[in-house]
Amino acid sequence: MGxxxxxxxxxxxxxxCDGSAKVTLALTAAPDIVSNPTDIxxxxxxxxxxxxxxxxxxxxxxxxxIDIIDEATDSNQDGQIGSGxxxxxxxxxxxxxxxxxxxxxxxxxxxxxxxxxxxGNTNHADAFLxxxxxxxxxxxxxxxxxxxxxxxxTTGLPPAPVAAAARAQGIIIYCIGxxxxxxxxxxxxxxxxxxxxxxHVAVTPDAADLEELFAELAANxxxxxxxxxxxxxxxNPDFVITSISxxxxxSATMLDTRSLRWTIPQLGVTSSESATLxxxxxxxxQQSGTKLVNESITYSDxxxxxxxxxxxxxxxxxxxxxxxxxxxxxxxxxxxxxxxxVVVDLGDVYLQSxxxxxxxxxxxxxxxPGKRVALAAILTEVDEDGLEHQRGMxxxxxxxxxxxxxxxxxxxxxxxxxxxxxxxxxRDMCSSRTLxxxxxxxxxxxxxxxxxxxxxx
Length: 457
Fold this sequence. Notes:
This protein has helices spanning 53-74, 106-114, 124-134, 159-168, 186-192, 197-200, 210-221; strands at residues 2-10, 14-16, 20-30, 38-45, 86-92, 96-98, 142-149, 172-178, 201-204, 226-235, 239-244, 251-256, 259-267, 273-283, 289-292, 294-300, 313-317, 320-322, 356-367, 373-382, 388-398, 407-418, 434-443. The protein is α/β, with parallel strands linked by helices.
């Protein structure tokens, strides 16, 4: 079967500006379909959300899959799946039905696919049950189920136990997910598919990708395992690789802070095998946004398996920084090479007041969008008897942010000029001063709105 699945996933969809995440690369390979006859059931979602281009693209993908398996089993597209392998079609909406049994006729399989129409709810449990019933427990053939869906379960029993029962019978389950109009629970697909999840689940938001996903799976099923595998990964310049875990197969080395190489001598040569590699990345840029994890990833092996890894993204939330007080304007100064000294008149600097300058930063936690914040800083000095003396208070308005969710806001450079108090501050030369600062913060804006009505005279 060659490389039957390849995947790349990240363990979170959001990190802080200097946050870290775990990335998992995964491969599954199996012996070729000629020496390892296989019964394959395509389980196809025809619920109402598939109306239009999603269903059309699904049909293209399913028929491409059938053609590739046809050619792989006897070296030509002769309209018959050979070498002892068979295929069947199950479709589902509110209920599931077997559109064919396990057969070898390509025309009949394609006719079943072409006959699908979209309507109804989504019953994954019944789909798994009907597909499982197609397999003959007494057959020596390998058993593969390819579940395609574009939505969440909306009717029927919980599907996870039914999928688990199928896996217990030796059925290998792959899940192809399309993020449809009603959303898609990727965790559910992971729970249905054969482990490891990363090797048996592929998800796309674009229906146009379905033909490619089905074609890749079918093409790799026809290959005879994989040997001398080399995978080179380069992460986005906004990230660095901090560590690599030992892979389940082969070995991995970090080439530099942004790249690694994973080599596997052989995979899936005598039986179906999966391999995974975990590595950890950290964001090092100061820019927020949704970012691709990898800049590039390449795959090669002796058999020429076609392997394309997904391109996961992560949303990076860097702190919002506010400077409530303007800094003094700088004066430009140039020093030429080899000059031992420079004399420059930088103008006048006026003494604001006697004493020391205290500068503080504070982070406001969980400030929601569209909410201005009133922030007050209260500074006191503590004398040797533990009594506090007022040294100043500042109140300021922190502007609202427009991020899509509540965020932390870093308020920088809150300055106090701290006068000397001979009775408190200067008990002896260069003595330390004990200070206390308190911050008070509250939202200015609320969701209350009045005068909503419009009066027409």
